[in-house]
Each structure stands twice: as structure tokens, then as C-alpha cells.
Amino acid sequence: MTPAPPAGRLPTVDGLTGIRALAALWVLAHHLNAIVGPRIITVPIAGFDVDVTPFLTCGWVGVDLFFVLSGFLLTRQLLEAFEAAGARGAVPRFLLHRVLRVYPAYLAQIAILLGAAWIASGSPPPALRYLPLHLAMLQSATPAAESAINGVYWTLTAEFWFYLLLPFAVAALAPAARRGSGALARRALAVYAVAVAAMLAFRALVMAGSGPGTPWPTEWAARLLPATLDVFAAGMVAAVAARAIARGELAPGRHASGMLVAGGLAGVVGMLYVMHHHDRQYWAGGAIFYVWHGITAMFVALVVLGTALDGRLSRVLFATGIARYLGETSYSLYLWHLPVALWVASRLPPGRDEAAYLAVAIVAVLAASSLSYHAVERPVLRRRSRVERWLGLAPA
Prior knowledge:
Strand order of the largest sheet: 1-2
Number of helices: 16
Number of strands: 2
Largest sheet: 2 strands, antiparallel
Number of domains: 2
Radius of gyration: 21 Å
Strand content: under 5%
Structural class: mainly alpha
Shape: globular
Order of helices and strands: HEEHHHHHHHHHHHHHHH
Oligomer: single chain
């Protein structure tokens, strides 16, 4: 029999891993669509041709899924660690786990990509000058460095620096957590309000400094951590709600899981169409520039919270064997999908045979990500306890 989780903790839920698969595959579909060439795509449904183009043109929403899920899982994990070991015992282990989770596959890929570029050109690749920034997870410090090695690395800067910021946020939540879920909820909403205020101020600064001849390329600046704080914070609020449910202090209805998942997914889809038809206003600094990610993150948080409740709909969507495996390999899939897709395109141009390109690219991406996971990620994670003991961080 599987032992029950400690009181107040939610059990491990396979569907949360499956959400990672959705996020990674969504970003993959977005980039494949961009490489092949954007076009209007319709699907016949009930006698109508339904335009599904936004699912691809706005597929970068997968990044928002990753950010919300990180806020949810890591806040829940760190809150429990603070309760068990206090900040002094929890924070070093938390940061070590994050380094061991992120850096090995990342460094291995950097070595492979730079090495391949060096061999192909016979000289040091220009991107080598940005290696120190990448080693410190500061590749987004400049627009040139951000995409010098791999165009998806900007998310790692935001993610990693959120990891460094999160212990301070949880330290603000922990005293309220000892007073009960009501106090914790109020403190979490205050933290969320601070994150929204910081995001709005930064995005206003971005628009004030953007445009021709200014030092703030809008697309680059809008990807920095201050511009995405509210997305991570939405996951944090969902984590507090999940904690209250686990402790029996909040009792959702019987069908709450399915309603949250269905409603959240419907909201995300609706936001895709809003962005697809109003992207010009977004880049021009309209209201959508300030609120789109935050509203979308709220809908994603509903999906994550509903999935954490482990209802039937979430299991059907996110807890299948394939979804779990793709979720486990999603980090490597995310790292490798763009360079592999571009490499395949250079040898099998999509213009010659689009279907053949897509088939080969998808197979190659899945193979590369699986190899990275089994050869790099998994062996390191299996030795995490050994590293903890060596550093004197193993729990007593």
C-alpha cells in the first residue's frame, strides 16, 4: 500500500507532470509553425471551418504554463520545507535542487552547440563571448546575448532568478502560514499585489524607453523577470489555495477539479484569440500589453489547481502514460526543440516537402530530448541525495 502523505500535504499528482508536456509541446508547435511559415489554419467542426491559427501563432503561451507551474510547485515545496526545517535548513537544499535540476542538461547542451559550431566553422564561434553570462544565468542581460546560443534560453534567466527571489517571498508567507490558511491567503494576495505592481511599473518603463533609437527593445525587455512576476505569483496563490484544501480548511465541491480545469482551459483558449487579433495593440503598448499575461496566468492557475485536486478530467488530459513521460522529459524537450528543428530545416527545407519536414523534425526533437533526459538529467537527479550528503545538506 502507498503510505498517505503527511498531514497538510497534497500527494504527488501525475497530472501536474502532464501539464509540463502540454507546455513544451505547445512551444514546439509554435516554433515549427514559424519555421514552416505562418498561415491561416482551419479545422472543420460541426459543419464550420474553425480558425485554430491562434493555437500555433500564440503557442508561446506554453512558457506561461511553465512559469505558473513553477510558482505553484516550488511555493508549495518551500512552504513545507520552511515548516519542517526553517529557512536556514530549507533554502540551501532548495537552491541546490534547483541547480541540479537546471544546470546539467543546460551546460551539456551549451557544450554541444558551441562545439558543433566551432567544428563546422573551424574557428571559435562568436557566441563564445557570451559564455560567462550564460554560466551565471544572465544571458538575458543583453538582447544579443539572449539568443546567441539558443533562442529559448531567455526563459531560463527568468526561471532561475525567480528561484533566487522565491525564498524571500516564502519567508514573508511563512509567519502567516503558522496563523492559519486565512492569514496565509491574505499574505499571499498581498505578495501577488506587490508582484502585479512591480510588473506594471516595469512594463510602463519598458514602453517609455522603447521605440526607434531607444535602448529598450520591447520584445527583449518584456521577457525579463520583472515583466513576468505576476505570472509566477499566480502560481504561488494557487499553491496557497491547494495547501488550504489539503489541510481541510477549504472544502471544494465534488466536481471542483473538473470545473477548474475546464474553465481554466477555456479561458486560456479565449486569451489566445484575444492576443491573435490584438497583437499590434500589445506591441504598441495598449492595455493588453499590461494585462494579457496576468489574466492568462490566472486561467492557467485554475488549471493547475484543478489538476492538483486530481479529478477525472485532469487525469484523462494530463495523467496518461505518454503525457507523464513527455512531462518528465519536457525540460530537455524545451532545450532541444528549436536547435534540432532548425538543423532539420537546413537539411530538409520545409518548402520542398512540408509534411516530411514536420515528421522528421518531430521525431528528431523527441529523440534528442529523450537522449538528454536519460543520459544527463536522470543520472544527476538519481545522485542528488549523494550530493546533499557530501555538502552536508541532507535532512537530519
